[in-house]
Batch of 2 targets.
Target 1
Amino acid sequence: MSDGPGEDFATYDERRDDADGTFEENRSQVFERLPETAADREVEGRPSREAVVDFWADRFGVPPETFDGYTFWEKGAGKLWAYAGDAPDAIDVEALGMVFLRVRQDHWKPTTDAVQRFARDASENVVLLDDEQAKRFVAGEDQDLKWDGDWGYLVVSHDLAGAVEPLGVGLYLYGELRSQVPKGRKRDID
Amino acid sequence: MVLERYDPLVDDAAAFRAACDRPLPSVVRVNTVKTTVERAMRALDEDGHGYERADWLPELLRLDSDSPGTSWPYFHGWLYGQEEVSALPALVCDPQPGERVLDPCAAPGSKTTQLAAMMDDTGTLVANDNNLGRLSALRSNAERCGVTNLVVTNQDARNLSLKPFTPAGSDEQPRFDRALVDVPCSCEGTIRKNPDAHDDWSLGHVQQIAGIQREILRRAVRTTRPGGTVVYSTCTFAPEENEAVLDAVLAEESCELVAFDVPLDTRPGVTDWKGEEYDPSVELAQRVWPHLNDTGGFFCAKLEVTA
Ligand SMILES: C[S@@+](CC[C@H](N)C(=O)[O-])C[C@H]1O[C@@H](n2cnc3c(N)ncnc32)[C@H](O)[C@@H]1O
């Protein structure tokens, strides 16, 4: 992520993940478990569990232990789920744990709910908003922002009840923070 | 009028009727998958929302205002809007971390998310509903609450198949440790929240839905392991949908009713109604009348599977 923004972000902006269901591309109705490492891969293009844990650690500084006890699954192309329970290897159900990462695109994109659940200890590419900025972000607005770090997907946080809490994912490009909060999650906070 | 039907069953019919006419406060349950009760209260304080903590369940907060949906703690999935008395059956079910738990009529997920929090988001929680639209609400509620031990299925709970959990080439059908059977019902007890809840009431509908309730409860008993717990709950007063359903399932399946303690004032299940006599053990079920604790109406029974 160092050569500057590419064209590809434009299309990702159109895509909706998360629970509002406007983006469904289920080629397969079955959840398939991610291989442990790239060497175990049987399905073309499917990332390994190791690569996914490394992504959270490299991009956001999320400690790899955060995902101990979780299995990762793909249903349809590129939609990954994190699940804490037991299940056989390929399971035909509606949902398994939570949707947490969109892959099979140049820049992997975490979901709002995954960032809230797993990125509390994130230490890199985290932007802290004040209250007024945070309200605009969760209302779904894009806003100008000074940010010296990387462009691309950021964890967007604010202070709440005495600690930093992740709100969701923002796409930082050309001096602007674009809210990625999905339609069904947007709110006008009082 | 529907409520008159139940005058013979209540100790104070006037108080019962008066309570049913009063609206209920807006109540939220703190979602401990994502935060603590202390931090959620602090966030509400900072936002200027007033509340009172329910003494019988520390996670329940009765709000002064009606709009928790537009507060910071709600956005973070720290709060779930839930009628106070509907937090009771999960408490009776008492799921433990690491267990396998079934919620066969789960949408939109208020009890599912409560069960997940009680399990510390570990083990396996299967949430099923036959209504796909309501299931999608359940999925977004569960994701907002950060629940990750959840499997969501879309089946008719009357013949719920365990096949999705059976490894290919095996016929092992892993049974559940517990089930919370929160069946569809005539919803008479929600009159304080929905003043038109009784508009479409008919005895025919009550009898029809009772048939469905019975089949859903039977299947839940069969998919729970011997020694496991099945909790049956409704938000209605009609004995046809409550004690009569238990009476039928006790006769058909290997299970028995067991006594349980709850931190609310309740009355025992009724053993005779409109000329019918039910198995005497249905007395172990508990009825929450609205005037007893100033809540909605509720019915809850605890069964143990015997074989
Ligand atoms: C009382 S509501 C459940 C409320 C839910 N337990 C909660 O706490 O949020 C009953 C649910 O049963 C579902 N239902 C009705 N008939 C069913 C059936 N045959 N199989 C599965 N679900 C059914 C309805 O769609 C409805 O969502």
Note: The longest strand of chain A covers residues 163-173.
Target 2
Amino acid sequence: MLLFDHVSKSFGDLRAVDDLSFELEAGEVFGLLGPNGAGKTTAINMAVGLLEPDEGVVRFAGETFDRDPREAENRQALGLAPQSIALYEEMSSADNLRFFGRLHGLKGPDLEERVAACLDFADLTDVRKKSVSKYSGGMKRRLNLAVAIIHDPDLVLLDEPTVGVDPQSRNAIFDRVEQLRDDGKQIVYTTHYMEEAQRLCDRVAIMDRGRLMALDTVRALIEAYGGPGKLAVRTGDKESIHDTTDPLGTLAQLQERETVEHFQYRPPDLETVFLNLTGRALRD
Amino acid sequence: MSKIVAMAAKDIWILFRDKLGFFFTVFFPLMMAIFFGAMFANLSRGPANIPVALVDEDRTAGSERFVTRLEAAGGLELEQLPREQALEQVRRGQTAVMVTLSPGFGAAMDNPFQTTPRVELAVDPTQFAAAGMTRGILLETAGAELQALMADSARIQATNDRNRRLIEQFTPPSAARDDFLTFIELSSRVSTLVEQLGLDGNATNAVTGGFGPPLEIGQTEVQAERRGPTNSYASSFPQAMLWVLIGGSVSFSMSIAIERSRGTLMRLLVSPITTRHLLAAKGLACLTTTLVTSTALITLGITVFRVKPTSYPLLALALLCASICFCGIMMALSVIGKTEQAAAGVGWGLALPFSMLGGGMVPLFLMPEWMQRLGNISPMKWTLMAYEGAIWRGFTLTEMLLPCAVLLTIGVVAFAIGARNLRWHTG
Ligand SMILES: Nc1ncnc2c1ncn2[C@@H]1O[C@H](COP(=O)(O)OP(=O)(O)O)[C@@H](O)[C@H]1O
Ligand SMILES: [Mg+2]
């Protein structure tokens, strides 16, 4: 569906995306992970035709990947929920959906049907006539997502869709993304929250400073880069933490020496993988 | 096409929702038209007298007595001129009305029972107010003259005697002649009675009023060459229409900047429309708004404030060219000012000095020559030229071509600059 083939993009001296290659597989949720400034949004902008790559090609759709997103009509098949909320604040949610629906060639009963479906999807049916400026952050986020799918695109790109929302809204957004996946959409999901990627994504690409650090399923990445898990044990009034890839074996060894009153095991997760790959230095 | 219309409709809807945009595009120009129109209307009416060129072709004691009385009546600034000069003055618009006293006027004035005295006015059709006031003052003066005549029994007796002699000399005896002589006799008795009763002026008027209007006034129209607007609203409405364009173009350039900073511009560019579609929509929205608002404004001017365009087709042409010009400027402004604040700052920062220079604040015809020439660098000046050309300057199509060509050129160049540099990101 979407293909990046040795794609690079620079802003002046800054190489925002550096030799990025990947290919989406059918029906998957593809995670694009990376700290701030990794080049995720730049990659997304090239995927939707807003930016032209300096090197390499971005193509989507078709067996042979022959469609260039820079051509207007080819963008009919994709929907973008931008990182920052992009809505007409003066208009109601229904009117926002209606307007973008028209831009995608919808009209008449088809348009109204899609508007109703998207309002329902975003859980905004009750407030559909209120102007967006009166919405909460979470409601705007959900509408931002709904507008991206008004024309029922095959490929949905979500650029950090959960930034600045409360846990309830975030959970609601996860549900929506899963719903989209179940509807057979292909999804590109960028985030720097690892637990989101772990929950939602089939495969993840980890980027840093424009470069692709790793690309695989979550499980494979953890196996490859997760390192040992952490086993915490309490014996008497002593507590200790042990790095281990075999928690049961380690526990048995410890039991031989003293009585373990309490233990807790934390397996390696994507966060560990991420930190191992991108280092612990602070980013802006 | 329907996508372009959808985008344009959205822009117009948002503009009219935005109170500030609405204010600058619709309300402020309207206020300005009425405010300046009323202000200059009062100034020009003022205490000043109506300039009147008086042509006395009678040159009798009667006509001279009338002129003296007219001068004393006040309200008119009389200048006695030969016929040709007087007419020339009306044509040049230097004098509002020409009043002609033809030969025989003095005799008629002395003998109102025989023929009603008659004067001829020549006025420019747009000077309807001045003509009306002049008529009033003429009637008043003739009334006063008649009243004086009635009160002067010696004079009226002399007139009656002369009339009797003339009638007896030129007509054979008949019943009609006898009736007429009786009538003359009676009218001389009226004046004697007036004198004996010691009636005051009003009572005399009431008694003698039965003789009909003391003066007949004929009127012909003389087309004046336009030097200034026909009425003050004819000057304030073009200015107001210019402010529609200024307000509209600044508001729309701000709307593009807002779309950019809010991210909706990016969203538009991700949807399956081309940049060309987007530009067409913005242009269409701006053009529709300015055309509709300007048309509404000038319609109000025509129907309520008696603005009389000299040519409707040329006015339509001027409106179209000026709107295109300012929608082009709107595009250029929107790439200079990246954010809403910057767009507003750049927009108004350029609009104010350029409109000052171009006659958007003080009317062009009140400006000194050199300032008018300096104004040539301002699109506002060309807009006003075109508007005024169609509203009161009486431009021909050829005269209209220059301002229209300048406006179209500015518009197309500015639009191209804006379109080439349109970016969806603020960076
Ligand atoms: N339009 C632009 N002009 C200049 N630099 C940019 C632009 N867009 C992004 N960048 C820079 O490119 C780098 C990658 O940015 P971005 O793709 O937004 O990262 P991410 O989305 O992963 O946080 C950053 O250093 C950012 O400052
Ligand atoms: Mg980003």
Note: Chain A touches chain B at residues 11, 48-50, 72-76, 78, 80, 82, 84-91, 99-100, 102-105, 107, 147 (CB under 8 Å).
